[in-house]
Specification:
Blueprint lengths: L2 E2 L7 E2 L1 H15 L3 E5 L3 H4 L1 H7 L4 E3 L4 H13 L3 E5 L2 H7 L1 H9 L6 E4 L18 H7 L4 E3 L4 H12 L6 E4 L5 E2 L14 E4 L4 E5 L3 H13 L5 E5 L2 E3 L3 H10 L2 E9 L4 H12 L4 E6 L9 H8 L3 H13 L2
Parallel strand pairs: 1-10, 3-4, 3-5, 5-6, 6-8, 7-8, 11-12, 11-14, 14-15
Antiparallel strand pairs: 2-9, 7-13, 10-12
Helix pairs in contact: 1-3, 1-8, 4-6, 9-13, 10-11
Length: 321
């Protein structure tokens, strides 16, 4: 069911700091909580967590496949395991282990990955995770989540702590995220959040693209175009009822993701609507391209995902109705 949430825009916060603080709070009350890193503790929040809980932090080195195997074994032994590394490294290098060691055995590892999507900045194309959602969506019994802001990062981690039916994948960006949701927000799984209600075009976005969608909607409002903005916080499973409700509200839907259009949320939304309520869906994402060595803003330009690109896509979509 579509959940309407009050928007409360505030300062930007580094999500890795939220990860570290949330895990620390969980670990203080539960001796089973541990964090496993693949030599990337500075970017995952592991370093800050280890400074307070050194005996609960394990570094397996630059070995993503070992990260998954070790984490799965520890989780199956009864520990509450949170594993951190880069999104692209985990899903590409550790795909077999994610499938066999974690998902097949229903190991309840909570994978919290940094550098998701186009957020990695200047580290180069090899660090860009443009296929991580496609991979995690395709693995049976594995959840794939994309928080909209730092508050949802915190609440997703708390929710995942209590989820013991299999592995959970939570993709977070490298850079700061704008606080959008109210402090008292609680994650309700599966979740699609309606952040802005309109009647002409509905934008369904994930992660850092939610902020882009909101900015585009504000610009379009000044031109008399009414745009809904929703965050698809739960990519898999997808809240089908919420997607159908958005289709009822708007003439056309646009999906916005810092991910390939192949296997991403665009295909997830389109597959639901093709079966239940045929609706025009336009996908905005990476169109069969690799990323480039540029800051986040440059990545958006390269991929055609800037605020102005979204504004132009909305106008183009309305011309076809």
């Amino acid at each position: 069911m579509l959940k309407r949430v009050f928007i409360d825009k505030r300062e930007k916060v580094m999500p890795r700091d939220v990860v570290a603080q949330t895990l620390y709070e969980l670990a203080k009350s539960d001796p089973r909580v541990v964090m496993v890193d693949a030599d990337l503790a500075k970017t995952t929040g592991g370093a800050a967590f280890a400074s307070k809980m050194p005996d609960r932090h394990i570094n397996v080195g630059i070995a993503e496949q070992s990260l998954v195997g070790v984490s799965a074994g520890m989780a199956l032994s009864g520990l509450k395991v949170f594993a951190g590394t880069f999104s692209g490294f985990l899903t590409r290098r550790g795909c077999d282990q994610l499938t066999v060691s974690a998902a097949f055995n229903r190991a309840p590892v909570k994978f919290i990955t940094s550098y998701s999507g186009l957020s990695q900045g200047l580290n180069g194309p090899t660090h860009i995770s443009y296929e991580d959602i496609a991979i995690t969506r395709s693995i049976p019994k594995m959840l794939s989540l994309a928080p909209a802001d730092p508050i949802e990062v915190r609440e997703m981690i708390k929710w995942a702590y209590n989820y013991d039916e299999g592995p959970v994948y939570i993709r977070i960006p490298r850079g700061p995220m704008l606080k959008i949701l109210p402090e008292d927000y609680k994650y309700d799984h599966p979740s699609v959040l309606l952040l802005r209600e309109g009647k002409d075009v509905g934008i369904i976005a994930i992660g850092m693209m939610v902020e882009i969608a909101l900015e585009a909607a504000e610009k379009l409002e000044k031109e008399g175009i009414s745009v809904s903005v929703a965050s698809m916080s739960s990519v898999k499973p997808t809240d089908e009822e919420a997607i159908l409700e958005l289709a009822e509200m708007n003439k056309i839907l646009i999906t916005l993701e810092d991910h390939s259009i192949y296997g991403g949320i665009g295909e997830a939304v389109a597959s639901i609507l093709s079966e239940k309520k045929p609706t025009r869906v336009m996908r905005m994402g990476m169109r069969d391209i690799f990323g480039v060595t540029l800051p986040f803003e440059g990545q958006l330009v390269h991929a055609g995902l800037t605020v102005d690109d979204v504004v132009n896509q909305v106008k183009s979509a309305l011309e076809r109705v």
